[in-house]
Amino acid sequence: MKNTDKDKIVVSHLKDQAWNEDKDQGKLRWKYIVDSTQSMSHGLSCGLLVLPPGEELPLHHHSPQEVYIIRQGEGLLLTSLSSKKVYKDSFVYIPKNVDHGLKNTGEEDLEILWIFPTDCWEEVEYIFKEK
Ligand code: MN
Question: Quick one: which of 31, 111, 120, 130 is 20 to 30 A from 40 by CA?
């Protein structure tokens, strides 16, 4: 089997990645960490999302599955039926097309790592639930 540029191990450092923001998304900020737009990676992508206290990522769904790993802080994992408390070292599996969201209910930043089975975050089409 021949290796190609796509078959190299990639090491990324959080400190080297730029913050991204979107005025429509309130005070959320995020970094792409393992992402085909940043590095020669494919098939899996991972990034860091930060929600300041009181901020919320509203209910949404998308066709790929997703894993959240809570890195710091505490909050609620929102679903269309109920919410569940999450905090440092909580892991969340979200099936395809199931509504979910996050709210920071604590006093420090809520930091979440997301993982998608996609080359990059941009490939994921977010469908937000109407309020
Ligand atoms: Mn999601």
Answer: 111
